[in-house]
Design a protein that fits this description.
There is one protein chain. The chain is an alpha+beta fold. 22% of the residues lie in helices and 40% in strands. The protein is built from 8 helices and 24 strands. Strands 14, 15, 18, 19, 20, 23 and 24 form a 7-stranded antiparallel β-sheet that branches. Strands 1, 6, 7, 12 and 13 form a 5-stranded antiparallel β-sheet that branches. α2 packs antiparallel against α5.
Amino acid sequence: MRPPELDVTFRLYELDCSATEDAGTDGDEPYLWVLGFKVDADTLDPGLPPKIRVQVYRGAPASPWVVGAGHVKGGNRIAIPPALGTRSFRLRPALVPVAGWFPGLAGVICLLWDQDGMAPRTSEAGHARFDAKFGGALADELNGLLAGAYDASLGTPGPDGPTLAWRLDRLRDPARRGTIVGAITDRLRDRLTGDIKDAVTDAADWDELIDTDDLLGVQAQVYFGDELTGYQDFSLSFTDDEANYRIRGQAGGSLVHSARILATVTHVERRLEQVRIVWARVCWFAARDYLARAFRLRTTTRFVLDTTIGGPPRQVRWYLGDTPLDAGSGSVVVHFEGIAEFASPPADVLAPDYPGGPAPVTYTANGPVLDLHAEAGDGVWFGRVRAVYNFDGDPDLQNVPDAGYERETQTSITGVELSMDRRYHEAMAACKRVTSAIDRRHIAVNLGKLHIDPGDPPADRETVRTRVDADVRALVAAGLEPVTAAVVRP
């Protein structure tokens, strides 16, 4: 199934200092460089092999200094300003040949510095150079990963060898991914340090170069997109010489699109098909005859793909189970189950006449709306209704298999309704009022709704069985003779 499209946010919110880098009593003056980055449908060329580009997010202009001109000492916990520590962007899944859906890769990289002799403007020159070089350098490493440069860290290949699908699957293991991220981060640090020093040297006055700022560490956190449908807590550790810092953060995403299927019975037409007389005794009342009736039902159930987040879908394809439904009108044969399992006594004396079997269901599919219409069926049909859909900018559903989002709902169609006459229900209502008699029997009784009207939302199998079981418990508690002992008169 297609992974979700997300609005992703990484938030670095706290800097904990266990030990400072400077040995003096004044402590450190830490500052941060923070970049968000992604690889997704916007940056991935889905060829064979895919070609990766990396999009970088510097964030809103903000001072990189965590505490301004102040100092940090061991034991201090400093809040990171939101403008400095927060990066947000949209992540769109990509369909990769052979490998299937790639949910996107989202991450944040952080460089922690201790200010010494450099002015902020000089540091910012290095910051700008790092921002300019990071995306291309990371793309080179990730393309190398897809080509096999990091296979030794990914473990033993599968029976087909170290394929692209195998490499992406192995990255699903958080421990292996952490190892790869650490290795790539170290390579990027080594690769970009020279560029940063060159930028700083060009911008610095001669006296600033006597005591340049110290880099306390480079750390990154990376997730697949479908790992960010909930929130993930993480921490980044920075240790250099005597320094020991930890940054606490959180990552998560919100759905760009969300939809659900709403089901409503829009039409029910009952046609009386047969009546039988059942001789039975209810509670303390004298035995008498009641009428058991069978109605043939004509029903229409409407399913609507309701978009709860985002705009309307561009395309919708409906399925009845695994059977695709063409746009417009058509017919599908489904199998109805016999009514006996889903009928309560004493009306179930009519159940043998409705053993189930195949019957047609007609439909009308019009964009986000599907109508199912049933006029026959000797029992109850239980099944699934699915909608596969997309939005503007997504691959076409007709041309690309598995290109859409998917929702499904369990539903049912009742072709026959078995019920008792009004006098029977009046006797049962009177019996319900005799709660002391029921209590003396010490029987757990649910005397709630004894019948699901066909005009209710369509019930799944569990709902129907629960209702039948409740009916039987209520009838036993009420003293109704079981149908096997009832006398059926023609």
